[in-house]
Every structure is written in structure tokens, then in C-alpha cells.
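Hey, resending since the last one bounced:
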Amino acid sequence: MAKKIWIKANGNGAIATGHIRRCMTIAAELRGKGCEVTYILSDEDSDHVLHELSEEGGDEYDSIILHTIYSQPLQDMEAMKVLMAEEKPDFFLIDSYFVTEEYFKALRDLIKELGLEVKLGYIDDLYKFDYDVDFIVNYDLKVPEDFYSAGVKLLGGEYAPLRRQFGDSKYKISKRAQNVFISAGGTDPYRIVRNILNEIYFAENSPCREVLDFTGVMCEVVVGPLFEEDYVKELQDMADKCEFITLHYNPGNMAEIMNKCDFAVSAGGTTLYELCAIGVPTCVYSMSDNQVQFVQAFDELGAAKYAGDIRTDHRLIQKIVTWGTAAVDNPGFRKRMSDKARSIIDGKGAEKIAAAIVEMI
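The C-alpha cells again:
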């Protein structure tokens, strides 16, 4: 019989889509190894995100909605007891920032009470405590080896769970940069994409436009699935007015779009790993506390340029645009960053994670 894998992850306008998206890449590899994968979701919002991303990626995943509050995972236990007794999963992979020590203890007690042998796994990047699991994944570039006591520890950038399209890059550095990839991830609460486009193409009193040359610069803009409707319309209006702006809605060929871009602007998150796997020189910014040290590590290693935090740096847009312009006629700089990024992220993390899960069960 096929091994049963459960995945707990949620996504909405507040927590974005990253947890569901990165688990989908692992799920695809597990399916390829003959496993049966089911998402365990708190609410309908998360189910909607899952199916939106499934349409984008071309893979549909079964889901079970617990009808609980995503930020209070202990609420899951009542429904989980019935489900686990019926389904008897072999492995339960958890990807949530809201789990607590009490949550893992309750899970362990439930598994023991039901007489099951469910292995527990967790994807971490917060280091809140030593998680009581059998299997831990942390693909930060710098991970303290002695922090976790799990039996299986997959640590470092090589375990970044990316889609297969990012695993075999043939990226080339152009002599002069012309195409720019811009992404804020699933959401853009600070309207940074709009503000960058405005700085480049529209602002009459922009200090950047007074001294920098944007002639012929093309922007490939990814519109996140959770962008608000009025914001999407605003971006579409900008694209309608400027032939140099192309919007991409739920692109299934993200690696292809990245491959044709000479450099990128991105928030910290899965997209940054994807850009590094392709080899696109990237200017990255942070917009949450848990992103700051994460993106600074890329900067310290020379794999990306950290511009600052959108919440506190009022000159961030100008810094990003200035960096991009400086990179236009500097292929040597872009090549050094590209080579370093690809040496850290090989795009095969999801395959390695899935193989380790199958070996464990």
C-alpha cells in the first residue's frame, strides 16, 4: 500500500502563501515516489490558496479542512483524533509558525493513545524551541548544528524545497542588463512593486530619474495570488500606460521568466531561493522580523544584495533602483553574484527531503 503523508500548512492574506507553496514542491516529489499526500488545513481560506497554487503549478492535492483558527493549532486536536484514527498516516509534516511545545506534546500523546507509529516532521526557520519531532528541515544558510535533537536533520541551503524547473539552470550573464524581474511574493502589503515601477517610469520629481538612465529597461512583474483587487487594477493601469511593464498572473513557467531577466528585486522567501538557483543577481528586501537575518545571510555570502527593511527604511525604493541601475553596465559584478548564488542553492532540495522522508518510513 502507498505510504500516507499528511502536510499541515496554511495560507492567507496575513501569512501569505509560502508555507503551502514550499510544501507543494515536497508533495510533488513524494507523489513521484508513490506516496499518497493530503493537506491538513485549518480553514477555507487556506483551501482556496492551495487550489489557486495547484492551478498555477498543474498539480491538484487532496485536502481536509479542520474548521479551526490557523493561529490556534491546539484547536486541531479534537478533529485530528478522529482523522488520525481513520486515516493512520505514516508521516505528518508540519509547516506553521504558530505551533508550540504544547502542540507537539498533544500530538505525541494522541499518537500514543491511538497506538500508531506516525513520524513527525517540521520545517523551521524561527528557532523558537527544540521541536519534538523525528525529522527537521531548516534551509537557512547558517544553521546552528546543535540546536535540534531530531533524529534526522536536513540543514542548509541545499535543502531549499524548490520546484523541479529550478533544478537545472542554464543562466547566462548579458553584457548589458535590460530585463528586470520584480516580485513581492504572494502579498504586497506595502505596495513596493507599485512604488518601484512608479520610481522608474512615472514619478516626475523622482531623484533617481534625475540622475539615472532607465532607457530600454523592461520589468517582468509577478502579481501575487493574494494581491488585493484594487491593487491589481492599479498595477494593470500602469502596465497599460507603459509598454515596458509586463504583468504575470499565476505563472506556471516562473523559471523561464527568471531565466530571461538580467537581475531581480525580491522580498525574502521562497522566491529568493528560486532566483539563486537560477543564478539571477538579486536585490532583496525584508518586510517582517523573521526575514531580516535570513536575507542578511545572503548578503554576507555575496549571493544577493540586501537593500533594507520596507517597514523602517524610507529610502528603500531609491536604494533598490540605484542598485539596479549600477548593475546594468557591470556584467562582472552580476556574474560574481550569480555564481555565488548557484553554488549555495542547487534547486534539488525538495527531492532530497522527499527521499529522506521515504527512507524514514
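The radius of gyration is 21 Å.

Sorry for the duplicate.
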